[in-house]
Amino acid sequence: MDAVSAWVLAVDFGTTNTIAAVGDANGVRTLTIDGRPVMPSAVFLNESGWIVGEAAVRFARRRLDRFERCPKRAIPDRVLFLAGHDVPVVDAITAVFRPIVHEAAQQSGGRPPAAFVVTHPATWAGSRVQILQTAAAIAARDLPGWPSPYPLAEPVAAAQRTMDIAVVPPVARLVVLDLGGGTVDVTVVDRNGAYLTVAGRPTGIDSLGGEDFDLRLARWMTAEVGAPALFDRLAMSVNPEERERAVDIRDHARLVKEQLSRQSAVPAQLPKSPPELPDNTPVLVNKLELEKLIRGGDGAEPGLIDAVDLVVKSLSTAPPGPPLAGVFLVGGSSRIPLLGTLVVERIGQVPLKHGDPTTAVADGAARHALAAVTAPAPVHYWAPPPPPPPPPRPQSSGRGGAAAAVVIGLFVILALLAVFAELAAY
Ligand SMILES: Nc1ncnc2c1ncn2[C@@H]1O[C@H](COP(=O)(O)OP(=O)(O)OP(=O)(O)O)[C@@H](O)[C@H]1O
Ligand SMILES: [Mg+2]
């Protein structure tokens, strides 16, 4: 396949969302699945197989025991507990990858991609990365000609997106701060022209992300209306209707949290939950309350302060490198304004933002793969052919040869004269 018609696929399998990007000669775009650019990473195990994405979230309503909202969090354990059984997590992830690779194959007219990239947290060991690669390979195995998926660290992928920002010079250091749904990841990435390398050790907090903020806010909202233990009681209930109410409260908390990135207060409503809540109960959430819950720092649950502390620590422990161009914020939860404020306070620089932070990893990974695939072949300069070897030199040629012949001739004559003189005397 030539560089013009080559296309690449990158998949960012996130804790909350899975996003895919396609790159070709026209650039990079987010792949839409069922018309949407973001697919929940959720899975639901039906009697007849896996249901994924939005459909899984809808199916979950009545059978939460068959549902997993964040299968990425189960990768360290290798298994998910669904419908009373341990199920290999690789099966669930394969199910998430399958509609993506098939949609990408269909949108490209059945041509295989020149490269297929799967992204992973930079802190992950090879065995976890292998699970992602295996799932991606199985998902694409019935598609003829597809290449083996190759892994790319999420911060390196995200940093690729900064290549065309003027404030990032060709030789520069970045700190990628990725605050997503399930984790915070902090990585120092050095740029040297077109090359990006991780400097020092990537760090992160595995249990800090938007999902955790939703939970804290859901608990706070029920406590605020006088029912502090309600959320946990509903979430642990054996009654599916009650567990469903807990899911509703959490979904509601997520929406409120996201709106609080744009406005200072949001009116919410809690579902009827007798005996604690007799009817739909209003609760007003303001930004300062959310910030108290997620700020972190001394003595508090881990939060944004701890994420920014990791930036400071990463910079102080990284090997010497080029000057810092900035802290690049990616991941959906990086939209929370307090994060940027804390970066300014601790680092003394306004953080870098570029494009949609939710799609940064998938988009950057597709750019990365595209750059590798379409890189111009090394230039071979034309050189004239070497001159033919000189013909073998004649044994006696030129002046030296003639002189030698004269000397030899004289010797012969003198020798003959001496012989004749000898004979005459005799
Ligand atoms: N405007 C917003 N304000 C606050 N949070 C937001 C906003 N928009 C999205 N989020 C949160 O971003 C999170 C999802 O981000 P993202 O898609 O980057 O995570 P992910 O890649 O699935 O997770 P991870 O990278 O941790 O594996 C969700 O918790 C979502 O609620
Ligand atoms: Mg992510």
Walk me through this protein's architecture.
The protein is of the alpha+beta class and 426 residues long. It has 3 domains: 1-165 and 354-376, 2-Layer Sandwich (Nucleotidyltransferase, domain 5); 167-208 and 302-353, ATPase, nucleotide binding domain (Nucleotidyltransferase, domain 5, 2-Layer Sandwich); 210-294, ATPase, substrate binding domain, subdomain 4 (Actin, Chain A, domain 4). Helices cover 39% and strands 23% of the residues. The strands form 5 sheets. Strands 1, 2, 3, 4, 10 and 11 form a 6-stranded mixed sheet that branches. Strands 14-13-12-17 form a 4-stranded mixed sheet, with helices on both faces. Strands 6-5-7 form a 3-stranded antiparallel sheet. Helix 2 (89-107) packs across helix 3 (126-139), helix 5 (210-224) crosses helix 7 and helix 6 packs across helix 7. 40% of the residues are buried. Bound molecules: adenosine-5'-triphosphate and magnesium ion (MG). Residues 12, 14, 178, 180, 331, 361 line the site of magnesium ion (MG).
Report the strand count: 17
β-strand amount: 15-25%
Annotated CATH topology of the largest domain: Nucleotidyltransferase, domain 5
Total of DSSP H or I helical runs spanning 4+ residues:
12
Overall pLDDT metric = 89
Proportion in helices: 25-40%
Main beta-sheet annotation: 6 strands, mixed
Give the terminus-to-terminus CA distance: 100 Å
CATH class of the largest domain: Alpha Beta
Present as ligands are:
adenosine-5'-triphosphate, magnesium ion
Q: Sketch the topology as an H/E string, one letter per element.
A: EEEEEEHEEEHEHEHEEEHHHEEHHEHHH
- The total tally of domains equals 3
CATH architecture of the largest domain: 2-Layer Sandwich
CATH superfamily of the largest domain: ATPase, nucleotide binding domain
The coarse overall form would be globular
Q: What Rg is obtained from the alpha carbons, in whole angstroms?
A: 35 Å
Q: Give the low-confidence spans.
A: 377-387, 394-407
